[in-house]
Amino acid sequence: MKILVPIKRVIDYNVKARVKADNSDVDLANVKMAMNPFCEIAVEEAVRLKEQGKAEEVIVVSIGDKSCQEQLRTALALGADRAIQIDSDAKLGSLQVAKLLKELVDKEQPNLVILGKQSIDSDNNQTGQMLAALTNLPQGTFASKVDLEADKVQVTREVDGGLQTVSLSLPAIVTTDLRLNEPRYASLPNIMKAKRKPLEVIPAADLGVELTSKVKVLKVEEPSQRGGGVIVESVAELVEKLKNEAKVIA
Amino acid sequence: MSILLVAEHDNSELKVDTLKAVNAASKIGGDITVLVAGLNCSGVADEASKIDGVSKVLLADNAAYEHSLAENLGALVVDLASDYSHILAPATTTGKNFMPRVAALLDVEQISDIISVEGSDTFTRPIYAGNAIATVQSEYAKKVITIRTSAFDKAALTGSAEVVSIGSEQNAGLSSFVSQELTESERPELTAASVVISGGRGMQNGENFKLLDGIADKLGAAVGASRAAVDAGFVPNDMQVGQTGKIVAPDLYIAVGISGAIQHLAGMKDSKVIVAINKDAEAPIFQVADYGLVADLFEALPELETSI
Ligand SMILES: Cc1cc2nc3c(=O)[nH]c(=O)nc-3n(C[C@H](O)[C@H](O)[C@H](O)COP(=O)(O)OP(=O)(O)OC[C@H]3O[C@@H](n4cnc5c(N)ncnc54)[C@H](O)[C@@H]3O)c2cc1C
Ligand SMILES: Nc1ncnc2c1ncn2[C@@H]1O[C@H](COP(=O)(O)O)[C@@H](O)[C@H]1O
């Protein structure tokens, strides 16, 4: 069993994004970057499946410029076997990413692809589903539990009403939710070992995919800020204000 | 312009998200057709036919659509897509699941989670946990869009559109439903409630959420939670409010024992009035709160319950 895990380099989740003065985009200059948290969960799940003897190989892939090799090395330190960087400095949409990943799926023929459910920068929540559509494979999105068997996978999904479990034929596409697992930290020896693991670079242009996004970003602005509030001294004062000032309770 | 909007429902009831999505669709303009796909869901179609602004309801009643499996529902929508310029769905977990499949099969980039319509091809959407708002323009002939329903008011139910049954069965045979565990609650749904009271890690355990229940009962509120409270097993996952959980914008949001991480704020900062109860005066939640009470929640909540 071979597992492919696409990972994305994004702004660190602790950092609050700032908008550029010219409103062209978010300012990422000198901002701390990290692996998308949902991708960390995806790597962890794949590595655990390997540790349980349910998978033989975990391949991680990231699409981006050279800087995403940093996150690929992190994934190797967490237990992935080899890494692939699909090299591109274009601003790609989820559709373009999914098309590039499809080329890789065709080439590597993984039994399972585990992606994050959402990038915390674009907040798109699309790529896994698009990859599933393009490869004509079943999808188990927002997974909080993955039971991998020889010819199928059962995925418990976090949905608006609670939990839903589906059974998918393999190969299949899974996207991770927060409760799937708690990712480990990379140990120093494993970080050293990761430096010697294979990292292949494939130019995106070699994969024959149209890379231009047809969704144009016209501007990026700060959201409207809330006006400052007041600190009340007591529950009684709070209730009085909610009744008579805000008029939100009767 | 002609719009196909996929209804959110549970086979017996139309969800309020659909009414809000119709309102968003009306801002785009053109005829609005609502698709109700499910099993034994003709009652839902009848309800949908009453939504103001809807000109037609398509009913696809078939076992293949009972659980909104993305592979089947996606194929059905793609099959219908040729007649429409815009394909919309609320950004619920169902919409988020099948809509990107539709987009990819139509070779279109999806625009996720729009919060306003600026024109028939131009929309705004939050990015980076709502710390920035992007205005985006789609150059595709077909637009595939999910709608953040908390940003739109409900359409009224005074219309009378025709309901047309379509005999379609798209069963991809790739996936099957096994089981579901739905959270039972007498309270309004989080995304539909006009008052929401949420608890965080400060609640210490699930049992203590009862302190919120009493207040919720009196206010007709829904109960929500932070990720930390869900991760710790205090409450089920469907109560998580935030960037990667549910987005709510009620008239009143009460955050109790919640620090106010950016991921939590992303899910509630568009509420009309925000109240924060936290024992730490430095907690970031106070920066967005209209009314802040620095107090121990175990003292404040019982007092609040008796004084409302
Ligand atoms: C990828 C990703 C996605 C995420 N998505 C979400 C999301 O959708 N929603 C979400 O909420 N979070 C999300 N988070 C988590 C977020 O970063 C925070 O960790 C989380 O919101 C913290 O929850 P909390 O405020 O309950 O806990 P804490 O930050 O631990 O805060 C607990 C608060 O309770 C107060 N408190 C303790 N005891 C008492 C008492 N007796 N009386 C009064 N106050 C008390 C404390 O002062 C403190 O402020 C996400 C994180 C990541 C990385
Ligand atoms: N540039 C990328 N390289 C590798 N994987 C990606 C990339 N962009 C998105 N993904 C994957 O798709 C998931 C969802 O992203 P999105 O659809 O952009 O929210 C991420 O968690 C990754 O697993």
List the strand order in the largest sheet of chain A: 9-8-7-10-6-1-4-5-11
Tell me the major beta sheet of chain A: 9 strands, mixed
What strand line-up does the widest sheet of chain B have?
Answer: 5-9-4-1-2-3-10
Compute the number of helices of chain A. 6
State Rg of chain B: 20 Å
The ordered H/E elements of chain A are EEEHEHEHEHEEEEHEEEH
Overall CATH class of the largest domain in chain B: Alpha Beta
The CATH class of chain A, by name, is: Alpha Beta
Could you give the order of the helices and strands of chain B?
EHEHEHEHEEEEEEEEHEHEHEEH
Distance from N terminus to C terminus of chain B (CA atoms, Å) equals 50 Å
Question: Greatest interface and its residue counts?
Answer: A-B, 81 and 91 residues
Helix content of chain B: 10-25%
The low-pLDDT segments of chain B are none
Compute the separation of the termini of chain A in Å.
Answer: 61 Å
What's the shape of chain A? globular
Strand content of chain B: 25-35%
GO molecular function, one term (chain B): electron transfer activity
Subunit structure (chain B): Heterodimer of an alpha and a beta subunit.
Organism (chain B): Psychrosphaera haliotis
Cofactor (chain B): FAD
